[in-house]
């Protein structure tokens, strides 16, 4: 029953953009229909996915006739449903948000295209999680990649948008190439294109090749550190609800692929887990370090996505090591942390992107240092951004705390269990702690510079709070964050069923109960939330009672403070950026004068991404040089292309006639 | 005409003429004319002559349809007339109009000279004949010249497409390519429903209609009809 419902939901979302194509450029009904269709589809999809998650049932079906001669095999189990829940939720939230953010009236040329591709991309992502054979998987994967390319390039009149989309396009195709090779090798190992476990006696080299190709293909999509080069540009230049979708869901589909392929592998060696753990640690640290140096609010959030993907990878790495070392507790903690962080990151990162989007929408800039003092003008956006920040920093009482805690505890378990040879895993917890601290610093910087203080430029003078169509989606996300935070018990059943492959089919939930003290967690978070609420209420009441005069922030007792006296985002982060200069290599132009009465000077600093700017682009240039002979065949000359046709035609015709009969005939004459 | 064709194709193996007859001559002589027109089109330098030759080829082929079809009913005549109308009248007129509107030089502008292209065409025709005799066929065609004529015409179309620079010669190249496919279709005249042939005709008409509009725009944008300028569109 769940499968047909899910497919119906997919169909509704798939066609959501179609009616709007027939609407005129300024008509609003196309957008309303699209939103209604996506909403109804999402609700059906959420219901069916939750049904699968609650029961742990596995639904298998195949769709004949979509592709001649090859039915699409679909399979929905706990893991698929776990990711499908996230996708359906984001579909609904983003669609409603788009109503206010990307109004058809304001974007007459791109609105219809955006909504059509939005539905197709969401459907493709759901189908990726349902696919049970290589063909269906790659088909959906490619549709997802192409539609997301067009979505990133929505504002294709801007050169930086085209550039970002192009880099993404290259990255995603490298990934798909790796996946093609990986599925071919999987077929070699298992003898079928269905996603079925490969036999245990498969030779280790083949298994390692499959693993490395999966890591490359899915890692590129997930944006793990050396492969992240497409991510910041794409996230920054897409419309905000698309950024939320990319960061909240698309990266997770990469994680899903890796998880799915790993379930097909019998007894993975420990070194795989170590590789994933190291990549995760690297990604988490460098992600947050680069985030500190950013000026663009959406680019900053994009680097935080890299950080969080790192945390997810750390959980996964721990689980893999646990499988290899036969330590069920590590597996439970690692996989539960990994999966729960997938949900959590999807929720709070989308919340952050949407609230940042509401700032961008009302001020028209993404530059943090041009904003300031927005909390008074946009209290809802500020509050919701605050909630997202608390969640992403892993602070109680919100959801980020829970999943990061699981990973922490997991990483520390090898020490508490006195596991010989594995105690160095605990260093991962140290990395995680540093990352958490830097994340707090980074979000204090963003929140302080954007929402607190006084406004720096005229851009913020006319900022207005976003409409309800943008507030409600953010509120829903915030509500989910809060619910998972204060009542983590609710997540146990879905987690148990999603991770059933790793931790046993029937006992998943009990295992989770046995390892993690959910009751204490809940109690702590509820107390924390209660204290916060009481404190907040007390401050409000006190302020109302005292009626102290209101002054500009950072006024510091000066008689005539100006907005330039306050900390900028750059100056706030400067100390940390200098500390991390070894990895960040910040560039600084200009110097602060040393004279007693210094003349007006300008100082500018930015943090380039050395992987994108140096390694990726150098590889790209090298590749272009290698491909010169191939490019010679592409001159853009129509006569030449037609000549290729002719040559192929002649070759085909020659293959019709057996050559020896031609030779005989000529010799016989 | 038959004599002309016989001497121009003196090297044809004897097997091809195994079943001479009235019907055979009736089919073979127009096909020979088609082959001659192919060579003529490769050698001609004036655009107007090229257009007229293509029109003549189209008219001959529609006549051939009536000869080959065993029962010549109203539908066949209707289609033949439609073909004459479109290939012989409408399309040439559109091309001539494009030629006039674009005010281009009336010369063909080849990549390789006229004589070499004729020689290439002749070699291609000979190769097509060799090829056709060795082609394993399930049913014997109504005329042994049909397959060579078809391949030779396709080849001529391709030669025009690949060795001529002007956009109008490109259109004529496609037209002749389609003529070659049409000749091959005569083999399958019983099997292919007329609806399909009508569809092809419509395709061709619309295609050329669109291309003549495009030619107008190319001319306005690049102030030339030289397809070499179109490489500027390459990314």
Describe the structure.
The complex is a heterodimer of chains A (669) and B (235). Chain A is mostly helical and 669 residues long. Chain A has helices spanning 2-14, 18-21, 29-55, 78-101, 111-130, 134-152, 159-190, 204-222, 231-237, 240-263, 270-292, 297-325, 328-363, 374-377, 379-392, 399-416, 427-451, 468-486, 492-498, 500-503, 508-515, 518-546, 569-579, 581-584, 610-626, 628-632, 638-656, 659-668, and strands at residues 59-63, 72-76, 587-589, 604-606. In chain A, the strands form two sheets. In chain A, strands 1-2 form a two-stranded antiparallel ribbon. Chain A is globular. Chain A starts with a helix and ends with a helix. Chain B is mainly alpha-helical. Chain B has one domain (22-233). In chain B, 71% of the residues lie in helices and 0% in strands. Chain B is globular and about 50 Å long. Classes of the chains: A mainly alpha (669), B mainly alpha (235). Chain A binds chain B through residues 634-640, 642-643, 645-646, 649, 653, 656-657, 661-662, 665-666, 669, and chain B through 13, 111, 130-131, 133-136, 151, 154-155, 158, 161-165, 170, 227-228, 230-234.
Provide the domain count of chain B: 1
Residue stretches of chain A low in confidence (pLDDT < 50, at least 5 long) are: none
Largest interchain contact: A-B, 20 and 25 residues
By DSSP (H or I, 4+ residues per run), the number of helices of chain B equals 8
Largest sheet of chain A: 2 strands, antiparallel
How many angstroms separate the termini of chain B? 52 Å
Strand content of chain B: under 5%
- SS content category of chain A: mainly alpha
Percentage beta strand of chain A: under 5%
Give the number of DSSP strands of chain B.
0
| Shape annotation of chain A | globular
Range of helix content of chain B: over 70%
User: What is the residue-mean pLDDT of chain B, rounded to a whole number?
Assistant: 76
């Amino acid at each position: 029953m769940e499968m047909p419902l899910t497919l119906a939901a997919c169909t509704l979302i798939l066609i959501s953009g179609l009616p709007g194509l027939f609407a005129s450029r300024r008509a609003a009904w196309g957008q309303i229909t699209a939103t209604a269709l996506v909403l109804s589809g999402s609700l059906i999809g959420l219901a069916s996915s939750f049904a699968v998650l609650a029961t742990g049932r596995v639904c298998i079906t195949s769709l004949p006739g979509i592709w001649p001669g090859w039915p699409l095999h679909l399979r929905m189990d706990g893991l698929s449903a776990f990711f499908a829940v996230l996708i359906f939720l984001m579909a609904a939230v983003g669609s409603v948000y788009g109503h206010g953010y990307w109004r058809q009236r304001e974007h007459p040329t791109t609105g219809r295209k955006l909504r059509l591709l939005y539905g197709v991309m969401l459907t493709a992502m759901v189908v990726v999680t349902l696919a049970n054979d290589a063909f269906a998987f790659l088909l959906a994967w490619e549709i997802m990649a192409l539609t997301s390319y067009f979505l990133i390039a929505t504002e294709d009149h801007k050169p930086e948008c085209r550039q970002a989309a192009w880099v993404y396009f290259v990255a995603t195709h490298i990934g798909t190439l790796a996946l093609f090779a990986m599925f071919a090798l999987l077929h070699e190992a298992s003898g079928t294109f269905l996603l079925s476990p490969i036999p245990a006696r498969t030779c280790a080299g083949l298994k390692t090749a499959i693993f490395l190709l999966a890591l490359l293909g899915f890692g590129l999509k997930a944006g793990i550190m050396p492969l992240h080069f497409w991510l910041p540009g794409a996230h920054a230049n897409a419309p905000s609800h698309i950024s939320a979708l990319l960061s909240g869901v698309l990266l997770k589909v990469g994680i899903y692929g890796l998880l799915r392929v790993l379930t097909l592998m019998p007894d993975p060696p420990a070194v795989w887990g170590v590789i994933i753990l190291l990549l995760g640690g690297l990604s988490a640290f460098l992600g947050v370090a680069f985030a500190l140096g950013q000026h663009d609010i959406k680019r900053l959030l994009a680097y935080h996505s890299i950080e969080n993907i790192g945390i997810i990878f750390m959980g996964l790495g721990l689980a893999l090591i646990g499988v290899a070392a036969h330590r069920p507790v590590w597996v439970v903690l690692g996989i539960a942390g990994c999966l729960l962080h997938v949900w959590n990151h999807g929720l709070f990162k989308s919340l952050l992107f949407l609230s940042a989007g509401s700032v961008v929408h009302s001020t028209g800039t993404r530059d943090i240092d041009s904003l300031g003092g927005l909390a008074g003008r946009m209290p809802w956006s500020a509050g919701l951004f605050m909630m997202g920040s608390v969640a992403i920093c892993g602070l109680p009482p919100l959801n980020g705390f829970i999943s990061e805690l699981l990973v922490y505890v997991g990483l520390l378990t090898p020490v508490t269990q006195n596991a010989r040879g594995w105690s160095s895993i605990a260093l991962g917890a140290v990395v995680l702690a540093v990352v958490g601290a830097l994340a707090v610093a980074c979000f204090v910087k963003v929140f302080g510079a954007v929402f607190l203080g006084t406004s720096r430029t005229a851009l913020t003078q006319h900022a207005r709070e976003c409409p309800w169509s943008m507030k409600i989606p953010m509120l829903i996300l915030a509500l989910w964050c809060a619910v998972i935070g204060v009542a983590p018990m609710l997540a146990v059943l879905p987690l148990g069923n999603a991770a059933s492959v790793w931790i046993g089919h029937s006992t998943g939930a009990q295992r989770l109960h046995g390892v993690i003290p959910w009751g204490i967690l809940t109690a702590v978070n509820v107390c924390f939330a209660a204290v916060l609420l009481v404190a907040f209420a007390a401050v409000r009441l006190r302020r109302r009672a005292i009626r102290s005069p209101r002054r500009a922030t950072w006024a510091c007792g000066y008689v005539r403070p100006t907005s330039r006296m306050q900390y900028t985002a750059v100056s706030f982060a400067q100390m940390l950026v200098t500390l991390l200069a070894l990895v960040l290599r910040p560039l600084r132009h200009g110097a602060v004068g040393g004279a007693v009465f210094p003349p007006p000077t300008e100082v500018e600093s930015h943090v380039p991404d050395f992987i994108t700017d140096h390694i990726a682009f150098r590889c790209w240039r090298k590749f272009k040089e290698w491909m010169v002979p191939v490019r010679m065949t592409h001159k853009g000359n129509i006569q030449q292309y037609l000549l290729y046709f002719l040559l192929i035609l002649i070759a085909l015709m020659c293959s019709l006639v057996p050559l020896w009969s031609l030779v005989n005939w000529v010799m016989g004459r | 005409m038959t004599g002309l064709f016989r001497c121009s194709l003196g090297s044809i193996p004897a097997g091809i003429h195994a079943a001479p007859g009235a019907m055979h001559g009736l089919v073979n002589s127009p096909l020979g004319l088609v082959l001659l027109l192919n060579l003529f089109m490769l050698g001609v330098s004036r655009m107007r002559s090229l257009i007229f030759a293509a029109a003549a080829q189209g008219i001959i082929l529609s006549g051939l349809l009536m000869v080959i079809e065993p029962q010549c009913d109203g539908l066949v005549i209707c289609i033949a007339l439609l073909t004459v109308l479109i290939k012989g009248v409408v399309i040439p007129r559109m091309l001539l109009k494009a030629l006039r509107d674009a005010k281009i030089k009336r010369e063909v502008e080849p990549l390789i000279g006229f004589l070499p292209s004729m020689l290439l065409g002749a070699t291609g025709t000979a190769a097509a004949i060799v090829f056709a005799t060795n082609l394993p066929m399930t049913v014997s065609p109504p005329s042994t010249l049909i397959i060579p004529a078809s391949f030779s015409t396709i080849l001529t179309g391709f030669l025009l497409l690949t060795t001529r620079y002007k956009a109008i010669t490109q259109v004529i190249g496609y037209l002749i390519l389609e003529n070659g496919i049409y000749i091959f279709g005569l083999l399958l005249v019983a099997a292919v429903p007329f609806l399909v042939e009508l569809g092809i005709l419509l395709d061709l008409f619309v295609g050329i209609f669109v291309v003549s509009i495009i030619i107008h725009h190319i001319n306005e944008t690049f102030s030339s009809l030289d397809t070499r300028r179109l490489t500027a569109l390459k990314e």
